[in-house]
Structures are given as structure tokens and as C-alpha cells.
Amino acid sequence: MSNHQTTDVDVAAAGDRNGIGQAVGDYFNRVRGGDVGSLPAVLGLVVLFLLFTALKPDTFFSFFNFANLLNQSAAIIVLAMGLVFVLLLGEIDLSAGFTAGTSAAVLAVALSSWGMVWPVALIIGLLTGTVIGLFIGTLVARLGIPSFVVTLAMFLALQGVMLLIIGEGGTIRLRSDVLLAIMNQNMPLWAGWVMWAVVVLGYALVSWRAISGRRRAGLRATATSVWVAKSVALALMMGVLVYVLNQQRQIVRPGKESCPVSGDAPVGCIPVIEGVPWAVLVVIVLVVGLTFVLSRTSFGRHVYAVGGNAEASRRSGINVKMIRIYCFMIGSTLAAVAGVLLASRDNSVSPTTGGAQTLLFAVGAAVIGGTSLFGGKGRVMDAVIGGLVIAVIANGLPLITQQSGIQFVVTGLVLLVAASVDAISRKRSGAG
Amino acid sequence: MTPDTPLLQLKGINKSFGPVHVLHDVDLSVWSGQVTALVGDNGAGKSTLIKGIAGIYSFDSGEYLFEGRPASVSDPKQANALGIEVVYQDLALCDNLDVVHNMFLGREETRFATLNEIEMEKRATETLKGLSVRTLKSVRQQVSSLSGGQRQTVAIARAVLWNSKMVILDEPTAALGVAQTEQVLNLVRRLADNGLAVILISHNMNDVIQVADNIACLYLGQMAAQVKVSEVTHSSVVELITTGRSGEIGIQVEDAIVGGAA
User: Fold this and answer.
1) Is A289 near chain B, with CB under 8 Å?
2) B107 and A316: CB-CB below 8 Å?
3) What is the mean pLDDT of residues B196-224?
4) For the domain B8-96+166-258, what is the CATH code?
């Protein structure tokens, strides 16, 4: 799942019949050739994780914090997924953060003032994002205004729209138990394992079908051993994730007992917290769905083509303007999803929802994960890996230092490093 | 359509951009199985002519006959539907996609709304084999990792993938070294030998003499002459390009005064 775009292109190129050793060798050749992909981000994630664990073993490295980390990162990750579509075209969406906020505000108003049931309100909230994306995309594609300027204008205007919807200084509560559950409730333990099985078996089956199809057609295909190794690795990683999240993680203060059941706890006892947060399921569904769109459909192929060479795409008969508009619509709709997650986490929508560093963190997440700012290169999975890096920094640093100045500086430096890696790998591959 | 009928025949083509009269009553014939070189100095109207043939511009007046029948081509898709493909000088390849993806760009094979990679890879491989291309290591290489000659090969292979009848090549050897130029010229020859009509635009007279069957020379927007390559020499072609005539062939003096648009 995590390697779609790169693997089936490059493993085939290497003529891999010789198993894992060959696959590893090819991978190193690719990295040396400048195609580093998500490698720096994955390494960075591991280093940061070990660093914070070593420095703060009791607070950072705890079950509670692990789940907390995923919840903190979910909205950033979804926002970054939307930005991947825009960045793939070589464009930028600076207004995505406030698109999230505005959509969440519309959702909250639809629930509380208009008294709508949550599915209708949710659809209206998401459509708000879609319409904003249509507007931005049309201005960029049809009028040819640089996306930087259009979205900078929207960045300002949408802040105003939010203030008008919410009212100066006010907040609107999110009145829907279902939507609040996304960030505040966990899946039943069995459901976590069902999710694990579906993802692992799904990956194994789909990739095996692709491999056997290629073999039947007499084309070079990934070696069985590589397929087994990847499937087992995915099963292990997902397994650890589900196992850890299924542990009880409530913090029990001395003198208090934890209750045997979750849900409505009697006064004076701390409810059990265990299970995979629903937000994780949301992220996984989006990763699988969007990865499919980008790597398995003509539309996805055209997105990469327009990002790589818009003129070539136009001459090949691709409707470049429509692709641009669609990408902005997808980006803003995903921003609206992120807005729902932000509102669910805060239990309410305020004029700062989606503001502050939300957008910059999301752009950072996409770029750190390996999505190129120059367009044409990136995957949905990049947003997840990069989002986790950002979340680990945002979560771990405050445990070490209370100075927010240091946190800003460190996050900024990480983004700079990621952008440098992008620029250098581009030079190396000779595309610059 | 008799064997002698040209695949493409243009008669009395005119094209102006505002006050600038770029093409003057241009005639051109292109036969299947032959390489027709289109030569002329900068500004002679070569690009305008092929862009008109390819449907990027429409001609102001004149006849456009394809396989002996009048055709209306005012859109690149109509030209593609006739079986006309253009390989532009800047190749129009996407560096970030691999060879197969580039060859099928904009016309992907799909099955149940998903890309049919197997079918596309098979057809791409067959087409490259049919052109005796052996310089590509793999059809799953990214185009950014290919050399200039390999890119040209991919661009040409893309043009013939679609059972096309005519391929227009815009200066395919302009940016290539000696060995790669040789490879591409061999490929151009093979296209014609496989029965396609080829229009080759080139500034390099050696290439033209080596590979073309006949030469059409534009001079200041007029067709100076279209002659068999066996009837001309290197120097007479250069004369045609620079002065519009060479001895008996070409625009005679009284005609040349009438023309004059650059």
C-alpha cells in the first residue's frame, strides 16, 4: 500500500526475478540516482522517535501519548493529503487551513442553528470545501492567476467569512455525538483487528493479483519473496499499531480506580480508554482510496502528467484546465474533512480553527514526506509519513522544553531540510 | 485511391496571421512508404504548414485531401483520427513518467475504470520491437533517465503506436550527437519502409539527402519545389532554400516578385 507508485514501476524496471537481495539493491540504486522518496522522512521519524523516547521515556513513550500523537496528527495528515493533489500540479493552496475552518463552521452552524441531522450537515460542510476549491481552481486554471496569489487572497477572505459565520470571539459547539466520536472515541478491540485483517489481506490479495497477472502476460514481475516480505512487513507494522492502541491507556491517579467498562463511568472512577481511535480508520480509508485514484486511474495519471509537463499533457489531449480545477476541488474537500476532524477534536469551532500553524504544518508534512514542490512527484502516503514527523516534533518537543520559540525554530528547520532534500534529489535525477 | 495517389495532398494552401501572409498557394504531396523532407530557412513557413496539417491551426483557403478525399482538420483530434501524428521538436514527454505511461499519455487503456498496465506494457513493447529499437533497457524506465536519442525514439514510437498512417517529425536530430543521429535516421527510414508516410523537417542537408525520398522546399511562404532526392544535389537544395530556385527548378524570377511574405 505504501509503495504503490514507485514499486510497480521500478521493480519491474529492474527485471526482478532474483528475490529480496535484488530488490534491496535496486532500491539503493534508485536512492543513489536521486529518487529518495520517503526515505529521509522515515529515517527522521525513527530518529526523532528514539530521541524523544530516550529523553522522556515515561511521558513520550507511553500508550496514552501514542494514541494522542495519532489524534494530533490526523487533521494535519488529511489536510496534507489534499495538498498533495495541489502540489503534484506544482501549485500551492495557502487557504487550505481556513477552508477547513470555514467548512467546519458551516457544519457546526448546520447542526446547531439549522438543526440538521449529522449526515446532511456533514455533506453540506464537505460541499462547502468543494465549492471553495471549485472557485480557486477556476480562477487559477481559467484566468491564469498564480495559485499563490489566489489562495493568499482566499486565506484572508475565508478568515473573514469564518468570523462572520461564527461571530466575533465566539465559538460554536459541535452538536453531534457521531462526529465528536471520530476524535474522542475508540473502535471496539475486535474492530481494530478486523481493520488489521482487511488492510493486510486486501494488500496481499491486490498485489498478488497484479503480480500473477503480469506473469501470465509474460512480463517481468515482482519476485514472490519480495511480495511475501512486503506483506509480512505490513502485517507486522499494522499489527504492532493495533496491538499498542488496544492496550488500556487511561492515566490512573493514585487513589482512583479504573472502571472495567468504557462509556458512561460512575463518578469517581476513571473510564477505560482502549482501542484504535476512529480517526485512524478515517485516515486509512482516505489513504487507500486516494492512492487508488492517483496510481490506478487515468485521472491520477493525468494529474502526474500535468505536474510533470503541462504543455505535453495538453498536446496529448488531456484537458489540463479541468485537471487543475479537479485537483483544487479535491484538495479543498479534503481540507473540509480535516476541518471536521479539527472541530471533533476541539468539540467546537472557533475563529482560530484551521488557523495558526495548521496550514504550514500540513504543507510541511507533504514536503517532508517526499512530495515535490516542483510538481509531478508525490504520493498520498507522503502526507501520512510527513504528518507523523510533524506530530512527533509538536508532541515531543514540549515535553523537553517549554520554550515555544525553540519549537518553531526546530519545525522550521525540519521543513527547510525537507525542501533541500527535494531540490537536491531533483538536481541529481537531472530533471532540474 | 490508386497506388500513385498521395496519402496527403495539399493544393493552394493559404494562411495569414493578421496582416502577415505566411503561406502562399502552397502545394504538397506526401506518399505512403516515403520520407518527404520539408526544408526551408527560418521563417519560410515550415512550422505553420505542419501545424495546419496537424490541425493546430486551420488553413485560410486551399484543399486538404487525405487518401484522395477532402478532409476537414481544424482540431488535433481530427488529425489523430485520420491517422496523423506529430513528433514535436521539444518532444512533449513527461519526465516524471515512465516510457509506457508516456506512450499512452492521454489515451490510456483502461479496464473497469482502472488502468490496464499489462495491456499497455505489452503493446508498448511490441511497438518498440516492431521498430527494432534495442537501445531501451526497460519500458518501465522514467523518461528523465533517458538520453536524447532514446527520448526521440520514445516520442516516435508513441506516434506509431496508434496505427497511424502519417508521422510528422519536427527536427528529430537537432539536439543529438553523431551516433544517436544515426540511430534516429535509421528509425525514420524504418517507419517509411513499414509503409508509413513520413514528413521530416530538418535543417541538416546531410540527413535529408541520406534518408528522404523527396524534398519539398519552402521559400518565403511559397513552395519553391518538390523534387525527388535523386534529381538534386546537396548544393542545389541549399540554393533552393536560400534563393528559392536552382537552375530550372524553383520559383522563377517573375513569380518571386509576387511572393514575399516571410
Assistant:
1) no
2) yes
3) 89
4) 3.40.50.300
Q: ipTM of this model?
A: 0.80
Q: How many CB pairs under 8 A join A and B?
A: 94
Q: What is the pLDDT of residues A207-247, one digit of tens each?
A: 999 899 888 888 888 888 888 999 999 999 999 999 988 88
Chain A residues with beta carbon closer than 8 angstroms to that of B97: 301, 304-305, 308
Contact B105 A316 (CB under 8 A): yes
Distance between CA atoms of residues B178 and B155, nearest Å: 19
Contact B85, B126 (CB under 8 A): no
Percent of chain B with pLDDT over 90: 19
Which of A13, A312, A313 is nearest residue B138 as measured by Cβ atoms? A13
Q: Where are the domains of chain B?
A: 8-96+166-258
Residue A3: predicted pLDDT: 38
pLDDT of res. B68: 87
Name residues 94-153 of chain B within 8 A of A (Cβ): 94-98, 101, 105-108, 110, 113-115, 117-118, 121-122, 137-138, 140-142, 144-145
- For the ranges A9-13, A43-47, A144-148, the maximum mean pLDDT occurs at A144-148
- Contact across the interface for B138 and A301, Cβ inside 8 Å: no
Residue A34, chain B, CB below 8 Å: the answer is no
Convert A277-315 to b/e letters by CB count within 10 Å (16 or more is b): bbbbebbbebbbebbbebbbbbbbbbbbbbbbbbebbbb
Among B110, B137, B141, the residue with its CB nearest the CB of A298 is B110
Identify the CATH class of A33-185+277-428.
mainly alpha
Cell output for A290: 486516494
Average pLDDT over residues B1-5: 65
Q: How far apart are the first and last CA of chain A?
A: 29
The pLDDT of A34-50, averaged and rounded, is 81
Q: Span B107-126, mean pLDDT?
A: 87
Using DSSP's 3-state secondary structure scheme, residue A87 falls into helix
Q: How many angstroms from the chain centroid is the CA of residue A334?
A: 10
